[in-house]
Amino acid sequence: RLVDELEPLFTFREMTYRALGAHARDVKPEQVEALSKSFKKLLERVYIDQLTAHMVKTDNPYSVEDIVITNSELRGIFARINSVAKIKKNSDNAEIQMNYRMVKRDGAWRIYDIEIEGISLIDNYRSQFNEVLTNHPFDYLLGSIEKHVADLDKNPAANPIEEITDAKEAKEATAKTDPPAEKKSQASGKK
């Protein structure tokens, strides 16, 4: 499996800490470990498994012709590698900017973030985690990720872009069951 080949290139613990952002200081080490394992499974299911499935499709119109490193920057134990993936779709060519942020741990360089066309994987999840953890306890986030992974395992054809939680829906459901005082007075005809 492709995931077995790619796994040693990543540091999922570092990815988890960075995705937690400011909330990381409020989380116990065992919670980080549990989240790291679930987050790893989520990333495998959403990205690597979907990429593998896409690559082996016989009607796949895309092919990666080359990946060219355009720049690299080293700062102590941190590195940033900028690259361009040259993609061919049928007879058309395209270039996709792909950047990797890395950290050196235990003598080996590991990826902790990938940016595709300027969109950071970790920034995206940090935003989602922050929204959940601002409104719910840690266990809600962990349970949401575990449920999403289980759903993906049951239905591998599920949309890989689907968000890990639907915090907005949960917020709306809470608002419906406990409307603010202003809404209560409007509902009863008072102002």
The portion of residues forming beta strands comes to 25-35%
Q: Report mean pLDDT, rounded to a whole number.
A: 80
How do the strands line up in the largest sheet?
A: 1-2-3-4-5
Number of DSSP-assigned strands: 5
**Proportion of residues in helical segments:** 40-55%
The Rg value, from CA coordinates, equals 20 Å
Q: Can you count the helices?
A: 7
How far apart the termini lie comes to 63 Å
Low-confidence stretches: 159-172, 179-191
Shape: globular
Largest sheet: 5 strands, antiparallel
Structure description:
With 191 residues, this protein is an alpha+beta fold. Helices cover 48% and strands 27% of the residues. It contains seven helices and five strands, in the order αααβββββαααα. It has helices spanning 2-6, 12-20, 29-56, 121-135, 138-154, 167-177, 181-187; strands at residues 62-75, 78-89, 92-105, 108-116, 119-120. A five-stranded antiparallel beta sheet has the order 1-2-3-4-5. Strand 2 (78-89) and strand 3 (92-105) form a beta hairpin.
List the helices and strands and how they pair.
Blueprint: H1 2-6, H2 12-20, H3 29-56, E1 62-75, E2 78-89, E3 92-105, E4 108-116, E5 119-120, H4 121-135, H5 138-154, H6 167-177, H7 181-187
Antiparallel strand pairs: 1-2, 2-3, 3-4, 4-5
Helix pairs in contact: 2-3, 2-4, 3-5
